[in-house]
C-alpha cells in the first residue's frame, strides 16, 4: 500500500491513556517544535496494524491547566510525526438532561468562548483564512462513535461543545446561557485545538466522556472536580477499549479527505511577500503549500 494511503491517528487525551492501551512496538519520543514545548513526549505504536501517536494534553501527571497548554506545539508535533487524523478524548460537562454522566458524545459543532490563547499558526507576514463551518470530520467522528459503541458505551452522535477558558467551572447563569445558545456539552480544551488541526490539514474529531451536569440544574450543588475525576477513573478502561475498537474499525486504506487540502485556497499572502522566518516555522504544518 502507498504510504500516503495509510492511517496514522493522533490521539490527544489523558496522561495514562497510552500506557494502558496495549500498543505494539510502543516508543516514547520527545519531538521538538518551533512553536515551543509540547505538553509531553509522544508515544508511538500500532493497534490492529494501525499506527497511533498518543499525546497527553495536560502533560505527564496532569500538570498543565487548560489555558497554559501549548496547543500550537501539540498539533505541530503530531503533524511532524506523520499523523493524518486527530482524535481528541476529553471530559465534558452535560448541558442536556438526556446526556448523562458516564455516557459519550461524538460532538459535531463547537462554540469558542476561550480568550488569550494562540488561535492560529499564521500571522503577520503570512496570512491564511481556513474554512471552519464544520470543524469536526464526520468520517473520523463516525469511526470513533462506532468504536465506543462496540466497547459497550452509550454514545450520542452529534452535539455542540461550548469551549470555555477555565480553569474554574461555569456559574449557573453562564451554564444556563450556554443552553439557550444551543450548547449540549461544555469543556475547556477543544478550542483552539480544533482550529489549529484544521490549519494543519488534519481531520479532527472529539469523543467526549460526560462526567457531570455542569451547573444549570436547579437544586444541584453544581459541578465539583471530585465527581469529574471519579467518573473519568471509572470509565478509563472503556475509553481505552473504544480506541482499540476504533483501530479495528477503520478500513485498511485511508481515502483522501477534503480537509487534507484545506490550505490550497486559504493563503492570502503572495509568495514574494511572505516572512521567511514564519515560513520556516510552518515547515510541518503548511510545508505542502509553501515549498
Task: Give the topology.
Elements: E1 8-13, E2 24-29, E3 42-47, E4 50-56, H1 71-80, E5 85-94, E6 104-106, E7 109-113, H2 138-150, E8 155-157, E9 160-164, H3 172-180, E10 185-187, H4 190-199, E11 204-212, H5 225-234, H6 236-249, H7 276-281, H8 287-290
Parallel strand pairs: 1-4, 1-5, 5-11, 6-8, 7-9, 9-10
Antiparallel strand pairs: 2-3, 3-4, 5-10, 6-11
Helix pairs in contact: 2-6
Mean pLDDT across all amino acids:
94
- Structural class by secondary-structure content: alpha/beta
- Amino-to-carboxy terminus distance: 26 Å
How would a crystallographer describe the biggest sheet? 11 strands, mixed
Question: Do you know the CATH topology of one domain?
Answer: Rossmann fold
Q: Please provide the count of β strands.
A: 11
Shape: globular
Number of H/I helices: 8
Query: Helix content range of the residues, please?
Result: 25-40%
> Which architecture of one domain does the CATH hierarchy give at level 2?
3-Layer(aba) Sandwich
CATH superfamily of one domain: Nucleoside phosphorylase domain
* CATH class bucket of one domain: Alpha Beta
Unreliably modeled segments: none
Estimated radius of gyration: 18 Å
SSE string, helix = H, strand = E? Answer: EEEEHEEEHEEHEHEHHHH
The proportion of residues in beta strands is: 15-25%
Amino acid at each position: 500500500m502507498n504510504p500516503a494511503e495509510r492511517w496514522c491517528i493522533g490521539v490527544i487525551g489523558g496522561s495514562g491513556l497510552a500506557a494502558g492501551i496495549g500498543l505494539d512496538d510502543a516508543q516514547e519520543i520527545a519531538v521538538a517544535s518551533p512553536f515551543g514545548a509540547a505538553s509531553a513526549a509522544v508515544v508511538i505504536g500500532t493497534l490492529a496494524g494501525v499506527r497511533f501517536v498518543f499525546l497527553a494534553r495536560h502533560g505527564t501527571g496532569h500538570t498543565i491547566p487548560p489555558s497554559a497548554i501549548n496547543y500550537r506545539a501539540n498539533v505541530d508535533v503530531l503533524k511532524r510525526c506523520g499523523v493524518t487524523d486527530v482524535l481528541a478524548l476529553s471530559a465534558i460537562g452535560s448541558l442536556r438532561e438526556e446526556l448523562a454522566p458516564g455516557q459519550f458524545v461524538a460532538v459535531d459543532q463547537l462554540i469558542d468562548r476561550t480568550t488569550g490563547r494562540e488561535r492560529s499558526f499564521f500571522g503577520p507576514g503570512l496570512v491564511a483564512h481556513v474554512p471552519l463551518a464544520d470543524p469536526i470530520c464526520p468520517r473520523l467522528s463516525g469511526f470513533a462513535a462506532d468504536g465506543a459503541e462496540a466497547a459497550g458505551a452509550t454514545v450520542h452522535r452529534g452535539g455542540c461543545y461550548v469551549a470555555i477558558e477555565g480553569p474554574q467551572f461555569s456559574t449557573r447563569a453562564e451554564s444556563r446561557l450556554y443552553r439557550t445558545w444551543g450548547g449540549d456539552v461544555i469543556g475547556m480544551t477543544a478550542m483552539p485545538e480544533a482550529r489549529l488541526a484544521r490549519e494543519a490539514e488534519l481531520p479532527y474529531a472529539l469523543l467526549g466522556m460526560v462526567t457531570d451536569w455542569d451547573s444549570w440544574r436547579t437544586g444541584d450543588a453544581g459541578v465539583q472536580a471530585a465527581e469529574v475525576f471519579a467518573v473519568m477513573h471509572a470509565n478509563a478502561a472503556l475509553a481505552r477499549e473504544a480506541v482499540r475498537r476504533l483501530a479495528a474499525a477503520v478500513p485498511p486504506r485511508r481515502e483522501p479527505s477534503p480537509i487534507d487540502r484545506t490550505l490550497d485556497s486559504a493563503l492570502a499572502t503572495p509568495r514574494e511577500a511572505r516572512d521567511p522566518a514564519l515560513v520556516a516555522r510552518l515547515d510541518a504544518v503548511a510545508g505542502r503549500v509553501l515549498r
